[in-house]
Amino acid sequence: MSRHFLITAFPSTPESCRQALALPSTTRTRRIRLRVCLSLLLCAVLLGGIACAASGYGVFRFLLGNAQPGDALRSLSQTLGQSATADHIQITLTDLIYDGRSLALSYDVENLLPAQGAMVRLEGLTLNGQPAAILYDDGERLVPSLHRDELPVRRNPLLGGLTASRLPALSGQVTGEITFVILRPKAGFAIVSDDLCESADLSAYSAEQLPDILDQRAAALTLENAVIIPESAAGSYPDYAQLDPSFGLLNDAADTLSEAARVTIRFTFYAAQGTRYDLRPAEDIRLADCTARIDTLWVSPLAVEATVYLVPQENTQAAAQALAARYGDMTLLDADGQELAYADMDYLSGSQPDVVCLSGQQWVCRYMISMPGVKTLPHTVTLQTQGGTIWTSAAHASK
Asked: pLDDT value at position 28?
């Protein structure tokens, strides 16, 4: 739930609440908003749930955090809503984005017996019966969570999500299946933290930091199947599933957790082919000292991917290395000569070249770029290196 949503969704909101919500997002002002606007948040959750789901709230929150999606990304979202329950864990698929090559999906995991903590792990995803390679997911997570999210507080249900890329071409109605594993501790959870122990000396923490520690401790104490131990005592609890309150499991899950149930949820969505995002040229590009082969150039609101090979005139490692040194880093520019404006997503990869031998036969200088989606679709895209321009796409990216 964004700050903008809370401010605009309820016209009769008291002015004091509006002002609190409009403050810059800092640690202090987040706490001010929590105290001042608790009742407003509750109303927003109860009354605004349908609007949030319809707007793709879950998947945008997963991808962007508190940042707002652009119109191009928002237009790709589809609401799901399928749900299943096993071993007192309810999992609900919320939203999905598919751009013709990549997919992002969000879900809520709710522990219906929150005093008995459980770990939930995403096991796999299939699309039209074929396994999909997952690029990123949340891994094994404790539900309820000990980590306090930014507004709104979401320990239980807990928002989760995944991204998958380089998917096979899909069109029309697609049937997917997603599987989760529910894990319970064999002996119990051991929350390893010197700060959360009741005997902890918290004098080193500032007045702004202390509420977070106390809040996290209170959440840990609600778990009946967990103990809080100092780091020095971790060796005394070898049979417990040991957790860092912020970073998850510390020991081998196979030794300390057992599978309690599996949940498989079937869902459907409509897949447009997204050909307007595929900007590859039909032929290789002849440069003065090499040939540029653009294997992938995908620019969409969800993801930007480029795989470019510079093929030297002489098929040797030294020639490919000379190209890497001459051309250097690669940047994707818009029609104004500015770097593409990427969305505020977490994942990215560098644009430095590497030298490889393809299939053991051809030496190349290779660029593999993976970036967040663009905020606004560019009119053209230029592959620019330190050594010069490789190529500029035709002006059809914004059709």
From this structure: 37
